[in-house]
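re: ur question from earlier - yeah i can do the single chain one, its not a big deal. heres the input i used so u can compare w yours
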Amino acid sequence: MSKKLDGKRCNGAPDFIIEIVSPGTPADDYIRKLYYYKNAGVREYWIVDPRRRTITVNFFEQNILNIQYSFDATIKVNIYDDLYIDFF
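and the output i got, formated as tokens:
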């Protein structure tokens, strides 16, 4: 059980975030939120871009940033040993 869970809520930043790119403000997702999430303690942040058909993976714990995958990829969630997500 995570130390962030107290039986009523999750305290602090989530470990994993998947965000869909906002068509009107993509820089918010790729730049501003990336900065805020990294500094807030999020462990892994994915950005899904339907127009480009890409998923950008940022794994902050290992300082692995902006790794891009296509929608036909199966992507491992780095913070978990056995979680993979298919986007096709």
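The helical segments are 26-40. not sure if urs matches, ping me
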